[in-house]
Amino acid sequence: MSRAVVLGGGFAGVLAAAVLARHADEVVVVEGDRYPSGPRPRRGLPQSHHSHVLVAGGARALEALLPGTVGALLAHGAQLRGLPGDALILTADGWFRRMRTDAHLISCTRGLLDEMVRRRALASGAVTVWEDTRALGLLGDAARVGGVAVSRRGAPPETVRADLVVDATGRRSASPRWLAEIGVRDVEETTVATGLAYATRLYRAPAGLAAAIPAIMLHPGPGPGRPARGATLFPVEDGRWVVTLTGTRGGEPPTDEQGFAAFARALRDPLVADLMAEATPLGLIRPYRDTVNRRRFFERARLPAGFAVIGDAAVAVNPVHSHGMSVAARCALRLGEELTRHGGIGPALFPGLQSALAAEAEQSWRMAVEADGEQAGAGTGERAEGTGAGAAERAGAGTGRDGAPRREPNAFEREIRTRLAQAKLSNPRIAAGLFAAQTLLSDDTATDRPEIARVLSGRPEPLLTSEEAIGQYPGLAAWLRSRLAAATP
Amino acid sequence: MSLRISEAVIWQETGEGVSLYHTETGDFHSLNDTGSRIWKLVASDGEREPVMFKLSREFAGSSSAMSRQIVADVRDFIGTMIEQGLIEEVPSEKAEKAAT
């Protein structure tokens, strides 16, 4: 009789358990917390009070894992927004025009998402969940994990035999320590700091505007050396909005009433502040600071057979990139594929399993580190290459690709980069490629080069003013006009 | 074979010489004075020989050793540009006419 144990009963753990239930006689989920009795935040998951979205690639994976879940989420009030067709986005380079692409996101509270996923994943009864149970360590040695030691509340420690143990305990995973205790000491870890903090509050939306508005994203403006401040507003179920204010070191959003409102008001556009002012706050302003990108390269270690790590426990990216749950869903899907390919839980599965799981997180990791690395570098992360052309004199500006000192971009480079950035705002093909990569629909981050050549050779599209950008959403524009009219004597 | 600037290249003459952007690789390049001069001659003349001839007259004067050096350098430069996809070789009009 085969048994799989999943450590952690959050989003990643429950999906992994659902997959394993198709290949093991028994699946046990070890969860340190107690599940809430409905779609509410979980006590042991501070992140559950903050904004959560499932990007298109993650939604696709979730639907493949648990068919009907996306439909159920939408039926319970989750909000689907096309990117950038239903999203009002102010980037450092300007406002996005409204364009239809395949990319989208689904926005709802973490409580609803977990509830819907858990209900479906555990519906068959093939998975047993041990709530209020702490994992204490791994059983076995450097060659083979054979189970886990756990402690149920109020009971002495006990051991559980398992043919496969999957760690899905998230950012605070103790796997490196547990592995060291059984003789596996070479788990590399790398972190990329973001310096970012954010604060979130839930609001009851004004009547008539709740679900009728686009997702709103105000990115930090250009300018190195200053804290980068931004905001998002996502509509969620039950006529609510979740507002998140973000700021890098020295510009962290406050968590007091007045400071929170003033922070939003001082952003590059007052739209989020205007909407907050007309909405009803629900509950506290909640801060969050654990935004570091952290990757543990389990796939590079000599992992014992019978053990794997999934989700944030292996690769945790800055939550502002909104990839965590989507990558977890993709990893669970890949776990299922690997199990099928290797005939279930057995010796053939183990050697390549962790590499396969890591591959599913690779794109998200690369994009997050690239974006946050540039942010941490105060916006000077532009590539600057010289040329290897060596005629009568060596051409170039004395810079190289790898490790060579970077030079300041010249006026030509700045102009090209500005035009490229602005082209994304208005060109449907370029925007489609960008958002397909950002929502994990495509792992090809290469841009549509022929289209770029065409765009750079033509006249640039004019940038939208704030009024024009908001005017793309007639309901929102009308609401702002009526608000202004009401305030005008 | 004739030479032409790749259609994937956006380029501009700046105060620092010629700056290039390759839209397929996303790479920027900056050419120094001499590289810029060769680049502009390729853009205007489209053949190796006129480029070498003009540069040789410009810089070598009556020195045949200098002239040989310039020819070699121009070949190297153009070869590197072709390798990097910045300049393309295309059948010359003369060769095409001869073939028909």
UniProtKB/TrEMBL annotation, chain A:
SUPFAM superfamilies in the record: FAD/NAD(P)-binding domain
Transmembrane segments: none
Region of interest: Disordered: 373-407
Superkingdom of origin: Bacteria
InterPro entries: FAD/NAD-bd_sf (IPR036188)
Name under which the protein is recorded: FAD-dependent oxidoreductase
Lineage: Bacteria, Bacillati, Actinomycetota, Actinomycetes, Streptosporangiales
